[in-house]
Design a protein that fits this description.
Blueprint: E1 2-7, H1 12-23, E2 27-32, H2 40-50, H3 63-67, H4 70-76, H5 79-88, E3 97-99, E4 104-106, H6 110-117
Parallel strand pairs: 1-2
Antiparallel strand pairs: 1-3, 3-4
Helix pairs in contact: 2-5
Length: 118
């Protein structure tokens, strides 16, 4: 199995996710989420395949999220507006985002990876 992981190399959660993938012999293509953020269309596709609420794609603990005061915006904005926002800055995206083209996970928890990527 091979997956794509959108990650930020300095992020400890991303490093833990890559370590897990390495330990379980899951091949991956790492994409730097800030240098090469997913497009609005890619985010929309990831969202649709994830089964998650769109707000789960936001890095709510990030500095950028707080600086832009997005807490209230996210609650009232349309999905189209949220896709635009997420595509505007890779630092707004919760990471890592991992996909095999069919399934999508956002964030990293050992048990979630165990279930989806083992």
């Amino acid at each position: 199995m091979s997956v794509t992981i959108y990650e930020y190399p300095k992020c400890s959660t991303c490093r833990n996710a890559k370590k897990w993938l390495d330990e379980h012999n899951v091949e991956y293509n790492a994409i730097h989420i800030v240098e090469n953020p997913p497009s609005k269309e890619e985010i929309k596709e990831l969202y649709e395949k994830s089964g998650l609420e769109l707000k789960k794609f936001f890095n709510t603990s990030g500095k950028k999220y707080r600086e832009l005061g997005l807490k209230d915006k996210v609650a009232s904005a349309s999905n189209e507006e949220l896709f635009e926002l997420l595509a505007s800055d890779g630092m707004l995206l919760k990471r890592p985002i991992v996909t095999d083209g069919e399934k999508v996970t956002v964030g990293f928890k050992d048990e979630m990876f165990q279930k989806e990527w083992k």
